[in-house]
Amino acid sequence: AVLALAPGPEAAPRLALVLAAAAVPQLLFLAVGGVAADRGHRRLLAVGGETGAGLAEAASAALLLTHTATAGALAGLAAARGAFSAAGTPAMRALVADLADRADQIASVNAALSGGRAIATIAGPALGGLLVTSAGPGWALAANAASYVLVRSSP
Question: By the 8 A CB rule, do 62 and 1 touch?
Fold first, then answer.
């Protein structure tokens, strides 16, 4: 998405800014999210974190689709997405133990989740690349934002 703003030599520093803006909040808040998941309402944290990340992704898509995106705005939204993700990820992982009926099910549930993550790690960028080349980066981000809704609304 950042590369669509201004291709050429000025794109590299802008891309670095947006990537750092996403990574730094994750590094800073992941431990805080873990403590909150241990002490608080895991489901609320997981749903809130994913909802916030999805909204940040939707806002990024809207900026790109309306041609009003700037590197600073995308960096701010990337930081918000990183912070929301850091808040929700530990809670989602902790929910596995809460949802498994028996202790011996935890390993099989974790294995299934790991398989799903592996598939998403491979298929996600490939599908994203197809969307970027066929429809543009704004629509690719809009599809990703929609995936937050689709995944979270499934039973």
Answer: no
Check residue 78 and give its pLDDT.
Answer: 94
Type of residue numbered 123 = A
Q: How much is the pTM?
A: 0.82
Tokens coding 82: 């990183």
Structure confidence at residue 105 (pLDDT): 78
With tokens 């909150």, the residue in question is 36
148 contacts 50 by C-beta, under 8 angstroms: yes
Alpha-carbon distance of 59 to 121, in angstroms, equals: 23
- For Cα atoms 130, 46, 113, give the angle at the middle one, nearest 5 degrees: 60
Residue 9 is classified by DSSP as T
Q: Report residues of the chain scoring pLDDT below 50.
A: 154-155
